[in-house]
Amino acid sequence: MMGDLFTARTSQAAKDLLGANPIVVLAPHPDDETLGCGGLLATAFQTAGAHVVCMTDGSASHPGSVQWPSDRLAILRDQELVEAIERLGGREGDMTWLGYPDGELRNYDPHPIAERIATICRELGADRLFSASPVDHHADHKATADIARRVAALCPSLRLFFYPVWARWDEPDFKALHGDWPLVHFETARHCQRKADALNAHQSQLGQVVLDAPSGFCLEQEMIRRFCEEDEIYFEVQQCP
Hints:
Layout: H1 2-18, E1 23-27, H2 32-46, E2 50-56, H3 70-87, E3 95-100, H4 110-124, E4 128-132, H5 139-154, E5 159-163, H6 166-170, H7 174-177, E6 183-186, H8 192-200, H9 221-229, E7 232-236
Parallel strand pairs: 1-2, 1-4, 2-3, 4-5
Antiparallel strand pairs: 5-7, 6-7
Helix pairs in contact: 2-8, 3-8, 4-5, 8-9
């Protein structure tokens, strides 16, 4: 009986993640949207709708490449993101590409960025915002989380959730590091293949495109498997300064 009650509460909490209005997801880089929120996005695209805001251009993933200099790589990563969103059930219009230089988001004034995202939320009627977690070790993820807090402060009715990506992969205590924020598991089994297909759209991050940058980034297959097969994890922020 207790197990059934826990399952019912967990299921209700997962449904509450979506609500009745479109959701907005902030992705520090192209591919974070699918890794962290692919199942949630696939569900939202089938119901009230969703919008992905990509914060940076992803152009720093393969430094030193001659065939794929940063400007050319940024164009490719934009195209890959559109393809990933379409594989999750959305359309090109369900994405805003901010295009800040990869790795440098913290160097830009967060106020106009937050204002722009707040406008997107208002125009969509969104009341739920999902952002990469400040517990993630990447500077762009932390900067995105800071901007998300500012957006929530500009839109008091907006509920803010953080989703861990790198912390979930390489930080054993990532749950504790989120403090007392309520944790919600979103079961994504029925979207596992769709999420894997969306990640496969990010070919440049799978070692299949940029071949002249030995130190370039490549998603580990075990990370892909885990993020596709396991529940997505979200923490609701209770206070937004």
